[in-house]
Amino acid sequence: MKIIILGGYGVFGGRLAELLADTPDLTMLICGRNLDRATQFCDNFRGVAAVQPAQLDRSALDQHMDRLSPDLVIDASGPFQNYGDDGYRVIETCIRFKVSYLDFADAAEFVFGISKFDQAAKEAGIFVLSGVSSFPILTAAVLREISKTMEIETVQGGIAPSPYAGIGLNVMRAVLGYAGAPVKLTRNGKRTTAHGLTESKRCTVAVPGLLPLKNIRFSLVDVPELQVLPPEIPGLKDIWMGAGPVPETLHRMLNMLAKARAKFNLPSFVPLASIFYKILNLMKFGEHRGGMFVHVTGRQDGEPVERSWHLLAEGDDGPYIPSMAIEAIVRKHLKAESPEHGARPATQALTLADYQVQFENRTIYMGFRAPPNADAALYRQILGHAFDRLPTQVQALHDDTAARTWAGIARVQRGAGLLSKALGRLFGFPEATNQCPVKVQFEPHKGGEKWTRTFGHKSFSSVQFAGTGRNDKLLVERFGPINVALALVIDDGKLFLIPRRWSLLGVPLPKVFLPSGSSHETQKDGTFHFDVEISAPVIGLIAAYQGSLELLAQP
Q1: Which positions ≥6 away from 163 have C-beta within 8 Å?
Q2: For residue 34, how many C-alpha atoms fall within 13 Å in the half-sphere facing its CB?
Q3: What's the rounded Cα separation, in Å, for the pair 489 and 484?
Q4: 198 contacts 178 by C-beta, under 8 angstroms
Q5: Residue 27 forms beta bridges with which residues?
Q6: Coil, helix or strand for 451?
Q7: Are the CB atoms for 225 and 345 separated by under 8 Å?
Q8: pLDDT by residue for the chain (555 residues), tens digit each?
Q9: Which residues contact 25 (CB under 8 A, 6 or more apart)?
Q10: Is 234 exposed, middle or buried (0-12, 13-18, 19+ CB in 10 A)?
């Protein structure tokens, strides 16, 4: 099978070629305006699939189709927003030469308009699918899964790329093209417009039981979902899709430019694309992680319900997700499982199960959440269905809302430095001891729990509650004037409590000084065990305590 990849050495096209590198019966023509770059990409390519460089611009494709004789054309060039009056030239060429077509288009108008070629594509005996990327095909797959149990009325979603993912110049041009420009969408059941990047929302992407992303700012983007999904979802009243690029300082600069353009009717900021492209690709710091969310409200059996889907991608795996949809379709095509003939947006091309296959053997995870039951125990509220993966005794300690006491034996260590001792006193930690009786009393407290730990004759208390705002999906523990927001992460039969943010009297404190340490709960020999370590950069160990607990019989 021979494939032409227009923009084959670019960000998306290059990653697609890498994903298909293990396919022996495949020849990929890596095409673009710059033959040297195409040749360099092919020289560095590793895999059993064959690659060939070609100097070929999308505008000249029709002049080379007979010579190249491809079985499939993939447009990974863009920006599709700037294709102009002759925007569908590649598709028209493919129909004329009876060659199937896929693209990475993220331009709402472009993808929405593809259906006008449906009859011609059917007559040519080919498939023409547009928008074969995370937006909209993955979003659509999620919504179809959710719609099995509820009637969808509103949709909000967003994608947050890793700061290390790299962004193509054409993507930056597309973003600046719609910044402050009218964006078509559905609100209150009616078609209307808003302005790109002028509206923002915050969300914490959190797959249950995994380390969530930081609470991220998402801003409205002009993506295919806004136009192609409303006709496919009866009863949909509102849809909003955003992107959450980091660092947030640059994101806010884009918001300001967009608002200025919308208010003062300024020209497009596309001429600034190369500047933003260079800055964004230089500012690579923070966690090398990305994610995506889809939040839905609607009705089930006449009652209001809501549900959300979350995806987390670690390290270098995340940047490949936009190319995985085309990878999956190509692999199916090689197995004679091709899409039906015709031209349409790619919203129906893959299921969530198809994506699950793509994510296997990669550090990409997804899961659903429902609003926490206010009557449920605190840790169950935060962990959702992942709570049921905890060891039995860890569940037993946390799955209770009544006052109770657990007791056992513990060992306590304390840091030796002056700052360490001062912080230990501020938190109220006990003195060091090799072995002492320990007792933990749990009491309901304003929607959370008050924990009173007694080591020997020394007691200290903290209050735990579910975080909100920037601390959403986190457990917050209050020690006097200090709040520490902790992620609840399940791994290898252990519940880890990982510090993510902290504040003093509500004022955020620098993360560089955030206390850390490997703290976890588990079960050993049928007994609850805890291992808590609290340390800080420069300061070192503040306190650590390990031991076991059992439920005391209530009088």
Answers
A1: 246, 247, 283, 284, 285, 286, 287, 288
A2: 10
A3: 16
A4: no
A5: 2, 50
A6: strand
A7: no
A8: 999 999 999 999 999 999 999 999 999 999 999 999 999 999 999 999 999 999 998 889 999 999 999 999 999 997 887 787 788 999 999 999 999 999 999 889 999 999 999 999 999 999 999 999 999 999 999 999 999 999 999 999 999 999 898 778 888 999 999 999 999 999 999 999 999 999 999 999 999 999 999 999 999 999 999 999 999 999 999 999 999 998 898 899 999 999 999 999 999 999 999 998 888 878 788 899 999 999 999 999 999 999 999 999 999 999 999 999 999 999 999 999 999 999 999 999 999 999 999 999 999 999 999 998 888 999 999 999 999 999 999 999 999 999 999 999 999 999 988 888 887 887 778 888 899 999 999 999 988 999 999 998 888 899 999 999 999 999 999 988 999 999 999 999 999 999 999 999 999 999 888 888 889 999 999 999 999 998 988 888 999 999 999 999 775
A9: 1, 334
A10: exposed
Which positions ≥6 away from 497 have C-beta within 8 Å? 475, 486, 487, 488, 489, 519, 520, 521
Instruction: List Cα–Cα distances, 73 to 58, 86, 87, 330, 405, in angstroms.
Output: 10, 18, 15, 11, 67
Q: What contacts 274, CB < 8 A, 6 or more positions away?
A: 169, 172
| Residue from 184, 183, 189, 303 nearest 238 by CA | 189
SS3 readout for 116-140 = HHHHHHHHHCCEEEECCCHHHHHHH
Q: Which amino acid is at 445?
A: H
Of 420, 519, 425, 412, the residue nearest 455 (C-alpha): 412
Distances (CA, A) of 256 to 19, 217, 253: 37, 14, 5
Cβ proximity of 294 and 142 under 8 Å: yes
CA angle 476, 480, 485 (to 5 degrees): 15
SS3 105: coil
- Look up residue 179 and give its DSSP letter: B
Nearest-angstrom CA–CA distance, 462 and 449: 9
Cα–Cα dist 398/383, whole Å: 11
- Collect contacts of 84-92 with beta carbons under 8 A, ≥24 apart: 86/59, 88/113, 88/114, 88/117, 89/58, 89/59, 89/61, 89/62, 90/6, 90/58, 90/61, 91/117, 91/128, 91/343, 92/117
The Cα–Cα gap between 331 and 344 comes to 20
Separation of alpha carbons 31 and 18, rounded Å: 15
Residues listed for the chain: 555
Distance CA 115, CA 122 (A): 11
Count of CA atoms in the C-beta half-sphere (13 A) of 90: 29
Tell me which H or E stretch contains 551. Answer: strand 540-551
Rounded to 5°, angle at Cα 241 from 202 and 254: 65
The residue type of 215 is N
Which 8-state DSSP code applies to residue 356?
Answer: H
430 and 534 Cβ atoms separated by less than 8 Å: no
pTM exceeds 0.90: yes
DSSP single-letter state for residue 196: B
